[in-house]
Design goal:
174 residues; alpha/beta; two-stranded antiparallel ribbon; globular; binds zinc ion
């Protein structure tokens, strides 16, 4: 992209550079959920229409955007900005788990939805958070895993297929 802009669109490059400069000086972290935000509280945390009883834990701000696009979640979020990774020296305090534990205790949260990735680190992080949540009396759920919409069983890997089977749901009469 840099080569393209330098060769063909220097004014466009300046617009991009200014936008980045602007973002660097204005964008910080939301004090409640840790996502990237221009204000002390991000628009979702500040929105009183959102359900304060249900908190969805994700790894990145991009995960929040993806979930928001579904329009299916009306609670609030907590953004880890990573996952537990002892090999890289990333422990609970580096991903805000101390802040999260405090929120479990101080706020009227009744359910935490674990939406960390399905990698070994993501699962370990989910396991750690689940233990913290239960000790604070908060119910724990994990987003379901399975066959993508429009996907074919034949081409689905065995682990996903096994998870889809074990997480099967009752088909309601329509
Ligand atoms: Zn927030």
């Amino acid at each position: 992209m840099m080569l393209y802009l330098l060769e063909r669109d220097r004014p466009g490059a300046q617009v991009l550079a200014d936008a980045l400069q602007n973002a660097l000086s204005k964008v910080g972290r939301c004090s409640a959920c840790r996502t990237l935000a221009e204000q002390a509280l991000c628009p979702i945390c500040a929105d009183e229409q959102r359900d304060p009883h249900i908190l969805c834990v994700v790894e990145t701000p991009a995960d929040v955007l993806a979930l928001e696009q579904t329009g299916a979640f009306k609670g609030k979020y907590f953004v880890l900005m990573g996952h537990l990774s002892p090999i890289d020296g990333i422990g609970p305090e580096h991903i805000g788990l101390d802040v999260l534990a405090k929120r479990f205790r101080d706020e009227p949260i009744t359910e935490v939805v674990l939406a960390t990735s399905t990698t070994v680190e993501g699962e370990a992080t989910a396991f750690f958070i689940a233990r913290e949540a239960r000790s604070a009396g908060v119910a724990v759920s994990r987003i379901a895993q399975g066959i993508p919409l429009g996907g074919e069983l034949e081409y689905t890997d065995a682990n996903t297929l096994a998870l889809a089977l074990s997480g099967r749901t009752v088909v309601k009469e329509s």
